[in-house]
Amino acid sequence: MEDSSDYLLKVSNLKVELQNQIILEKVNFKIKRGTTLAIVGPNGAGKTVLFKTLLNLLPYTGKIEWAKKIKIGYVPQNISVKDIPISVKEFLSYSRNGADIEGALNAVRLNNAGIANQSLGVLSGGQLRRVLIAWAIIDKPNVLLFDEPTVGVDVGGEESIFVMLNELKKKTDITMLLITHDIHLVKEYTDELLGLNKCMTFFGDSQRIAEPLLQQKIYGEIVCSNT
Q1: How many CB atoms lie within 10 A of CB 18?
Q2: SS3 of residue 8 by DSSP
Q3: What count of other Cβ atoms lies within 10 Å of the Cβ of residue 82?
Q4: What is d(CA 146, CA 52) in angstroms, rounded to the nearest whole number?
Q5: For helices 125-137 and 158-172, angle between their N-to-C axes, nearest 10 degrees
Q6: How many CA atoms lie within 13 A of 135 on its CB side?
Q7: Would you say the C-alpha torsion 30, 36, 41, 45 has a positive or negative sign?
Q8: Going from the N-terminus, what domains does the chain have, and what CATH number goes with each?
Q9: Distance CA 163, CA 68 (A)
Q10: Predicted pLDDT at 127
Q11: What is the arithmetic mean of pLDDT over 7-15?
Q12: 129-150 CB burial, b ≥16 within 10 A, e <16
């Protein structure tokens, strides 16, 4: 028998409607503590909208149930830092007083890179993503919502981001929800898979992402009825 306390998040019959247009509907899933969920689907499928809804930034109907005393870390897909004249250390210090900046940088493999005093605007895409992860985890959240972990990262560095996230999960037992388009990384580094295309098209074992018929179902024509 399943223990309800094992679940960090339960979503039931979620529907998001903005400006009289249905963006998401018929979304039902639940996530166990300490697992990694990959959220996949074509562009415009509602993946980022789902994150914003889980963060209570958008109106919705249905039910979103977070476990008690939950603390959420969030890394957005895009953030412009070129014109922000602050260093990595200053940026991370804004999270809260007394933050363990060294520990956060060490967790994302940047502690030995000598970048704490560098400006955010001079960082490579991979370094910036790691700094944003450090910012998201510096308060030691229970769950991390990560929109496109490898956006702006060189092809050779994409897997290293997932390896680092996987190590972080093992050390802290953090639960992760990741929006991504990389099927190989989904299969290799996540536990469960949520397919979205305006509605939920699949929820289950992430290993199934390799199945051509499932990929067609997730990335094909919209199957839900917006009525």
Answers
A1: 12
A2: strand
A3: 9
A4: 11
A5: 20
A6: 22
A7: positive
A8: 1-70+143-154+173-227 (3.40.50.300)
A9: 29
A10: 84
A11: 96
A12: bbbbbbbbbbeebbbbbbbbbb
Q: Are 108 and 130 in contact (CB under 8 A)?
A: yes
List C-alpha distances in Å: 134 to 109, 139, 153, 168, 218: 10, 9, 16, 11, 32
At 155, is the pLDDT very low, low, confident or very high (cuts 50, 70, 90)?
low
Q: Which residue has the tokens 């509907």?
A: 25
Say whether pLDDT at 161 is over 90.
Answer: no
Pairing of strands 143-147, 72-75: parallel
Rounded distance between C-alpha atoms, residue 42 and residue 40, angstroms? 7
Beta strands in 33-110 (DSSP E): 36-40, 61-66, 72-75
Assign 137 a pLDDT band (cuts: 50, 70, 90).
Answer: confident
Which residue has 């992402």 as its token pair?
209
Q: Which of 15-29, 45-59, 72-86, 127-141 is predicted least confidently?
A: 72-86
DSSP 153: -
Confidence (pTM):
0.87
Helix (H, G, I), strand (E, B) or coil at 17: strand
pLDDT bracket for residue 227 (50, 70, 90): very low
What is the length of the chain? 227
- With b for 16 or more beta-carbon neighbours within 10 A and e for fewer, the 41-74 pattern comes to bbeebbbbbbbbbbeeebebebeeebbeeeebbb
Distance CA 205, CA 218 (A): 14
